[in-house]
Design goal:
Blueprint (H helix, E strand, L loop, with lengths): L2 H24 L10 H6 L4 H19 L5
Helix pairs in contact: 1-3
Length: 70
């Protein structure tokens, strides 16, 4: 995999991980970004895939953090 692709994948991974972390931080306050009316009503079919993507991004980010091979 080229360095440019790895860099892009890393940035997208960190972005999705940050979105997931923000969502977890808002849940105790009564907000769930993925359960807001706009998303729930218009993008309901994308909820599960978004959760999976964020989970995979978190795993990839963890691998990068722990020194995954280049």
């Amino acid at each position: 995999m080229s360095k440019e692709v790895k860099d892009l994948l890393g940035k997208v991974s960190w972005l999705l991980t940050a979105i997931g972390a923000l969502n977890w931080g808002l849940v105790p306050l009564g907000y769930d970004l993925f359960n807001l009316p706009f998303i729930r009503d218009n993008l309901a079919a994308l909820q599960a895939p978004l959760y999976y993507l964020i989970g995979l991004a978190g795993l990839y980010s963890l691998v990068l953090l722990l020194g995954g091979k280049d």
